[in-house]
Amino acid sequence: MENKKNTSRRDFLKTLGAGSLAATAALYGCKDNKNAVSAEGGSIGEVPTDKMTYRINPATGDRVSLLGYGCMRWPLRQKADGSGEEIDQDTVNELVDYAIAHGVNYFDVAPTYVRGWSEAATGTALKRHPRDKYYIATKLSTHREDPGLRTFEGSTALYRKSFENLQVDYINYYLLHAIGLGGMPAVMERFYDNGMLDFLLKEKEAGRIRNLGWSFHGDVKAFDFLLSQQDEGNVQWDFVQIQLNCIDWQNASGWNTNAEYLLGELEKRNIPAVIMEPLLGGRLSRVSTEALHLMKQARPEDSAASWAFRYAGTPESILTVLTGMVYMEHLQENIRTYSPLEPLTAQEYEILEKVTEILLNDEYVQCTECQYCMPCPYGLDIPGVFGHYNRTISAGKRLRSSNDENYKKARRDFLIGYDRSVPKLRQANHCIACGLCKPHCPQTIDIPAEMRRIDRYTEQLKQKTDF
Fold it and tell me: How far apart are CA 377 and CA 460, in angstroms?
């Protein structure tokens, strides 16, 4: 179906709702939380342990925290022997302990996350807690280029490896990963022609999978096809994971489809939605000064991120909202936002519509830092380059002329910040425009062109030439 469906904002407002459940920090010996700090640096006060908003999965009755922990970006550290990097397991354990003690019970991972290390690290952290205290979600990640994974033998081996990594004997939420990438041919190859979907349905009957669903990026025909399979009685989907935020609601770009359409189709069938990219790769937490001013006028104490999470969590059909939280202050602030959720009002939706207009007309590179373009064969840190440039845009420090006010300071901040955040050999000037990254970008960014644009801007600053 075409991505043209346009329901009114008033219809969207009909889907508001919230709830609560108790948890205890003392049980897990968490640190004092009375002086929590927001990502913006200000104090947010005490982080409650007993006010998390929960949603009920109609398929299984699971009581799921509205804040879900995305385990795609666990913190790294250097190995003791200096031979490379590894996941910082101590920090992961601390973050997981704090999350569970404050009511978070949904953890989303995949075999491909954090260079393939995330499942094992997440399993190690969760194993230290009673099994009934958390729901674990992982995925059949056969959308990558290795054709061996798409055979029945390769897929079942990947499936069983997840159990081993996570140290569990059942998985609460199992997903067909990245439906839509590669269109319908990939759907048939990965799940139907090799008999893998039949296998997973039998695993669900055996209780080793408690909820079966899928995540969506890409060709909407694949999305519609899997829903039609339920309509025809061939399968019952327990949940579906989609991308939703104020930009993707009606202005999705690249491989994405308007969330207005996706959520509407799921609601017709009473399929709960799991939300990914509520911050659009962090972009909605780093909005421009003009956009932030609109939000601060209405709610002076709230960060841009809290607005984005309230937006994503307001519809009652949303089961949980996933976000990767590498830093404790991000985890604390997000827990506060959903403890309990204060649904958006009609006036606040109008403010976010104005914010969306501003964001759609700025100079951001539409990168969500998903890492799908990595690794670059020539060693570039593509998400790092785009991230530094976008932070400059959001701070209102993108220079237009050497005559701009505060030119010297803004120039210095950009160049020094660039070198600190991205090693020189991994910066945009080393891009040879091979184009190998382009097919992997869900936002369909012309990565070489954007690298050239950022490199040209950087050189203008270095040479002190006019724009």
Answer: 27
